[in-house]
Amino acid sequence: MTSTFSLPAGLAMPSIATVAEELRAQPLGGEVVLDASALTAPDLSVVQLLLSLRAEARSQGGDVRLSAPAGEALTALLHRGGFTDAMSPDDNAFWFHGVPLQ
Predict the structure, then answer these.
(1) Is the whole model's pTM more than 0.90, yes or no?
(2) Which of 24, 36, 41, 67 could serve as a FRET partner for 17 with CA atoms 20 to 30 Å apart?
């Protein structure tokens, strides 16, 4: 079963708990597709949420993916946070759909 969830444009630390609850209510044993295209100013809490959601879904036999490669705001955050420095092929497939980073 596939469920789709759109992340709100202003998702950051002040609203992360509410969104985390909503995401964890999704059936994580199937596929969860996240639309992160509206994110305007995400912070590290967003990356932490997505990474923990991926790990939780895997432990339940499911998968989490982005509906499109990370947009400009999320890509800039991943660069600033050092996540792109030693990105595994699996992480690149998640964040950038396998497109090599420039």
Answers:
(1) yes
(2) 67
